[in-house]
Amino acid sequence: MSTFLAVARHGSIRAAAEHLHVTEAAVSTAVSQTEKGLGAKLLARSGRGVELTHAGTVYADYCRTILGLMKEARAAVRNAEEGRLRIGVVATVGEYVLLPLLAAFRDRYPNIELNLSIRSRDDLFADLAHHESDVVIAGRPPHGMGFVTRARRPATLVVVGDPAHRFDPDTATWLLRSERSGTRASTLRLLEELSITPPTMTLGTHGAVVAGARAGLGVALVHSDAVQSDIDAGRLEILPVDGTPLDRPWHVITTDTFMPSAQLFLEHITDAEQFGAEAFA
Description:
The protein has about 280 residues and is α/β, with parallel strands linked by helices. Helix content is about 45%, strand content about 20%.
């Protein structure tokens, strides 16, 4: 299953073999034996590589879940303070919210193997559904997928711009995140609710959007966590826009399976005595 997933992710037998440090023949044999055992064609040639058939897409989804559960099972039976914790976060959380809490957690539990992944919202919840992450910290989770919110922390989205430009939000250029960003979706919904059609510019990453706002490229809807230092220093200002600030709390999310190390992590980040206003609740 691991070999097949490597082919699926890399799009070719050669790339999968290089990633796994085995021969192309070994990868081809593993895939052929899997197809023979299943009685289904999983891969089809596409240019110089391969692509998943419908059966291959279905099988890959099961492989991710099965392998994720196997790793989760091994971690679940270990001592919580010597286990493993895989945390997935959106960029703003990873860059501006979590790191001080995570550093204190590492000091408190030095023998827990930590892995932090900064991914798009959709990828984070796909990883969690496949048991490839133990905890996700992001916005509100999608409905109907069996996820459990364990804690929250208040957060708001505000519109900011360079104070020197005196932007009018109705006509200024709005700076946007990439297509799969939840903040981008919130921005577009806000513009629709305001019934305005200003010019937009996609800069992609969160850091680029904030830097663009500081440079005077336009205005941006961003998490207040990410720009508080810029606001305090006068590099950015919060603009009065109808419907803002938007209430968008951070959620600590797991599946209904709660890993022992994840329980320690939850108890740690909800410790108001230690972290005060920075704590989740």
